[in-house]
Amino acid sequence: MRELYSQRTSAEYLDRAAKVIPAGVYGHQGPAEGCFIPVQAFPKFSSRAQGTYFWDVDGNRFIDYMCAYGPNILGYNDPDVDAAAAEQRAICDCVTAPHTKMIEFAELLVDTVACADWAFFAKNGNDATSGAILCARAHTHRKKIVFFKGYYHGVSAWTQKIDYPGILPEDVANNLYVDWNDFDALSEVFDRNRGEIAAVIAQPYMHGNFADNILPAPDFWQKVRKLCTDEGTVLIVDDVRAGFRLDLAGSDHYFGFEADLICFCKALANGYNVSALCGKEFLKNAMSSLTYTGSYWLSAVPFAAGIACIRKMKEMNLPALLREKGLKLTQGLQDRAAKHGFDLHVSGEPALFYLRLADDPSLMLHQQWIANCVLRGVYFTNHHNHFINAALSDEDIEETLDIADEAFAAL
Amino acid sequence: MEPRTLCFINLYAIFGALPKLCELDDEAKALIADKNIAVGFLVSNGPSATLRFAGGECAMYDGVEDCDIKMVFSGPEKFNAMIDGTSTPIPRKGLMKAGFMTHEFTELTKILERYLRPTPEALEDPEFKRKSTTLMFHLIAEAVAQVGNEDTVGRASTGYISNGEVTLRAEGGEAVGIRCVNHRLTAMHTPPREPTAIMEFESMDYARDLFDGKVNAVTGVGQGRVRVLGMISQLDNINRILDRVSLYLA
Predict the structure, then answer these.
(1) Using CB atoms within 10 A as the burial measure, which of A164, A393, B148, B206 is most buried?
(2) How far apart are the CA of B228 and the nearest CA of chain A, in angstroms?
């Protein structure tokens, strides 16, 4: 039996942080939004990271299945990506005139992503999705946007809901909501708002929180694609979370359709801060017309990292590798659960698997099992899909399964 | 802020706190000790409920079918004006018993106000603070239900809450619940037996600080002073409604 991790130092740092930082750690990496249940089980600050591991400030090592919520796809501190970034840093990074790495990166994305005729760079996924909405509205001169319930497209006002703090009803007045996979409902929304819908925005499948993830129904995407084309509506795929984990040509390619605009971030540069919006030729003029930029958006170091990351992902045939690792892990977890008499549901794609112990609908049992895993060195979350990275070895998977076994036994 | 929603809060949460007040406060208890009277409040395009004082206890019921004194209001604004003290309505029924309204009932509302809008000095008395915070728990649970059912933005939050019963409690102190069925909320003045989500404050004092806006719940979660478990999406949405509640109760 493993000794349980202590988070004493983490707690001290969080108290210190809370004095000068709202909530101590805010957002998805913080204890509240990150659903640290119980809070004492989870690390709040890291001290270092390497490959598929990170170490917290108490010296505990974790096999990390959140991968910084997605950016870590090759392994923390990947030598090839870091070398490319270091080489570029010695040349230049944030300069008055952008470096030509920007062109190389755009060319590589256009060659790699099936629907891409151009690439536009920014920093976060939210920049890419917000740029996509601006572009769709600029092109169509329409106001309304269709979302699928359970969506997450960032944190700008247009992505939030009417009841969120700081959001005005006017911010979301042009948002229309439809249930995922309900094409009839989508058609009805189009009927009621004919000629007014600028865009449909969606993740490639429903990877909402607190619920099993749902893949697209057969032909769903193909019907959505046709409807958007027929109605002159821009189809935006938010591939920030799943991008490159399912298909290097884009998750729209994986599901057999073509988006008009596709948003990438997370896995794009293995942790270097860059996002990209790629699109079709007919939207390039609209994108060119936008007043949309940022101080660091054209920095060259993340471009160099992105180029190295994409090249390496291609060499490794990464999506197939991640799928294989994800299947091995999740099947093992389900076996361990069954051994202890628990019903562990696995949903979503293996490279971004979502876990739920179905024995307790309140999720309290699930939260306890997740905490038991974290306390023993496997970093899972109880509310969000997980991420596989290339550095995860068979030995890491075996260790994870041993820990999961102990965690089930401790329930 | 919507006047109709405020009216529901004023009736069900503010007047709805009187039963608990009559349990907790000796002065209130004495005022109703020998009373047997029911006061109905009927608001056009708004709520209707009856407060019954009998057997030394107070209870609230929906509707005004069985009351001795009936107060009728032509709209939510009129009821809210009575709560603000800017209007004094005349009973539609039970004029002969109206003395209860001008004496005992008025006294009860003054005692309630002492607990709900306490002075800093009053809160230095631990027993007073405990009773005041207990009342706040019940008032907030009821106000969450009203805002979640009536307020335009609150209804959006309730629309995201799945069926279940949520417990709000302070360790070693009061506990209340909020039931959600088909996106309608009901306050529970005894905590659920099988909650689907729990929000627990480390103490009554910490709960008080949260209610008074002196500390922040998100920071409290990180520091382990607010413990959450179960269906967090239910708690998330109730927290958004709580944000609206503070607007109405300010």
Answers:
(1) B148
(2) 7
Q: Do both B205 and B160 map to the same domain?
A: yes
| Angle (CA) A10 B240 A131, round 5° | 80
DSSP for residue B105: I
Asked if residue B169 and residue B75 are part of one domain, the reply reads no
CB proximity A15 to B under 8 Å: yes
Q: Is residue A196 part of a domain?
A: yes
Q: How many CB atoms lie within 10 A of CB A15?
A: 14
pLDDT, tens digit, 9 for 90 and up, residues B148-158? 999 999 999 99
Looking at the structure, do residues B206 and B146 belong to the same domain, yes or no?
yes
Q: How far does the CA of residue B186 sit from the closest CA of chain A (Å)?
A: 19
Judging contacts by C-beta atoms under 8 Å, the chain B residues touching residue A367 are: 229-230
Q: What is the mean pLDDT of residues A230-245?
A: 98
Report the pLDDT value the prediction gives residue B87, as an integer from 0 to 100: 76
Average pLDDT, chain A: 97
Q: Tell me, yes or no, if A315 comes closer than 8 A to chain B by beta carbon.
A: no
Q: What is the pLDDT of residue A188?
A: 98
Q: Rounded to the nearest 10 degrees, how much is the dihedral formed by the CA atoms of B38, B42, B47, B49?
A: 10
Question: Smallest Cα–Cα separation from A290: which of A132, A156, A158?
Answer: A132
**The two structure tokens encoding residue B86:** 């800017």
Containing structural domain, residue A394? 8-76+318-409
ipTM: 0.87
Give the predicted TM-score (pTM) of the model: 0.93
Same domain, A178 and A275: yes
Sheet order of strands, B175-181 included: B184-188, B175-181, B164-170, B197-201, B226-230
Distance from the A78 Cα atom to the nearest Cα atom in chain B, whole angstroms: 32
**Residues of chain A contacting B222 with CB distance shorter than 8 Å:** 14, 18, 23-25, 30-32, 36, 39, 44
Q: Flag if A39 and B223 touch (Cβ within 8 Å).
A: yes
Of B156, B218, B243, the CB nearest to A162: B156
Is A33 domain-assigned? Answer: yes
Which among B116, B142, B160 is the end of a domain? B116
* Residue B91: predicted pLDDT: 73
Q: What is the CATH number of the domain that holds A389?
A: 3.90.1150.10
Q: Which residue of A has its CA nearest to B195?
A: A362
Q: How far away is chain B from the Cα of A396, in angstroms, using its nearest Cα? A: 29
Looking at the structure, tell me whether residues A38 and A179 fall in a common domain.
Answer: no
Q: Which amino acid is at A287?
A: M
So what's the pLDDT on residue A1?
84
Q: Is A57 in the same domain as A102?
A: no
d(CA A350, CA A326): 4
Say yes or no for a CB contact (<8 Å) between B243 and A165: yes
Domain identity same for B50 and B92: yes
Which chain A positions have a beta carbon within 8 Å of B193's beta carbon? Answer: none
